[in-house]
Amino acid sequence: MQKKYIPFAVFFVALLVFLAHFGTRYTTAAKPAFVFADTEKQIYLTFDDGPSTKVTSAVLDVLKEEKVPATFFLVGEHIATRRGIVRRMAEEGHSIGVHSMTHIASQIYASEEALLKDIADCAAAIKDVTGAAPSLYRFPYGGEQRARQKSLVEAQGYTVVSWNAECGDGIAKDATAESILKTAIKTAGNKSRVVLLMHDGAGHEATVEALPRIIAHFREAGYAFRAF
Ligand SMILES: [Zn+2]
């Protein structure tokens, strides 16, 4: 290099160092804002009482279209005739948990042995299709009221999943897509981690109808969709 170019070279190097420095500061300052927005608010869509033929298939279609994962708590007695639907749940990346073999309260809660048998039977039916033993459990008929049985179930290695928001599709038989959406939004409130209770058993067509709108609402509100 000729001597007269040295000052220009020094200036150029200094300029690069200056830009690199401020460039780095800019990106590190901007990054946390995006990370915060993406991870702070989460919603778990959870479906009880399936698999059903029409409703569960339609729910899976919506979830696939929207690229959203969900968690399904199954009734074991419905699995034998709908193995393909359960296989599809697993293949499309959704989480599958135990709800009950029979969903008949008087049988499930007759004794601790009866409860554990109900869970084991449902888990076996799931594993027979997916090849994986489920590790998630949701109590039929009641969330937090089952405190005494909770430790019993946890001792079997299950994670008990309750909910903190619901869409009213299980209680009101005449729930409409509109009422389901409104109840979901109202009960979710400002929670940063929403676990939404929904149903995909037979007859819950209104839930399917509401699902794309529920997803759109929470997506717009900045929630990330998660499965257990
Ligand atoms: Zn149920």
Explain this structure.
The chain has 228 residues and is α/β, with parallel strands linked by helices. The protein has a single domain, classed as Glycoside hydrolase/deacetylase (TIM Barrel), CATH 3.20.20.370. It contains eight helices and eight strands, in the order αβαβαβααβαββαβαβ. The chain has helices spanning 6-39, 54-66, 83-91, 105-108, 112-130, 147-154, 177-188, 205-220, and strands spanning 42-50, 71-75, 95-100, 136-137, 159-160, 165-166, 193-199, 224-226. Strands 1, 2, 3, 6, 7 and 8 form a six-stranded parallel β-sheet that branches. Strands 4-5 form a two-stranded parallel ribbon. The radius of gyration is 25 Å and the shape is globular. Residues 15-19 and 22-36 have low confidence and may be disordered. Zinc ion (ZN) binds at residues 48-49, 99, 103, 140.
